[in-house]
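--- STAGE predict ---
source: upstream dedup step, 1 unique chain passed
mode: sequence only
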Amino acid sequence: MRTRGALGLEFDTYHFFARSNTAHGCVTFLNEHHKQTDDWRIVLIKSGFGGASSALMRTVMESCQSAGEKTSPEWDAPGRERICALRLPERKLLLADAEHPFAADVRLPGAREELFSLDLCRDNAQLRAKREKIHSLHCAWLESINRASRFLRAAKAMKRDIGFAAKDSTDFSKMEHFASRMAHKHLPPPNGCIGEETKRFLTSVSGHGLLLRRSAIPDLCPHIVTMEDDYGIAAPVVWGLMRAYAIGNGLDVIVCPCLLDPFGSPEHLLIPTIGLACITANKRHPIDFDHAQHVQASRFYQKEDLRSHKCRIAFCRRSMRELLAEAYASQAQAEDAKRELDVVYAQATDFACVERMGKKLIDHG
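--- STAGE serialize ---
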């Protein structure tokens, strides 16, 4: 029998990204949330553009906070000021923006998921009059998002090639021993339960580069271990083993994958029950925290063997930097088009109506 661990919903008050562009296209883990909300009411908000769904969730959040209720928002990426999902644990209510291309699945309409439309809060005649402009902006937005994703996919290939070059020079048995010692040091003994895994984005691609929800880490997990890994093999393996140890010992974990491999091994691993964060850093994205324990992944690589791949690795790293720069530039173009699209929709939206709908949603849900 599957037993829930200690994480539950209490640690969701810390802000993560609800979705992001990745090497696999636009990805959201809202469907992962459904696994942990079997007895919850799940409301998928259909609002189009213009920030109406975020305004509705902000109204709901402020209303619940004023009543002393716990709220748990998650944010858009890259529009961090907008709420894309809101959990209300005391009401067992999950609100989620079902905007394309991040739409969540509807598995049991009415019984589990509800579709909540804000169409009545828009002047659709006004939007039809601007159809050509809206179509042009929408196409520009999607085209830029897809172009950014293709650059990220190419960067992933370069990262994978670095891994191939370093693989034969990697001591995997040493990684296993390190992970075993680390688990013995930090994890409590098994409690007869099986922990659960929750996936979240701690990072997101934006027009300004890679964004990190840095504040969520020390607040949620005061004990931080960072591994400096410039080859991208050691950290995912060690953190993946730590994930398995923690779940087997009955601890719930938050897995934060790399945007170049959103369905792969953990880039960052958070174990809030014991306040432990396992963080990956490298020269491209240095991450440093006060009082953090630093681990050099170089201990797992044979430096002499790596020298024979020096030119190949240097080429891949240079190519990766250039590809990521192009991805960020494309994402910036997508953000510009999306911003214009939002303005057009916002001008046709009655936000007083949105506020009324938000209050109605929780008062009569």
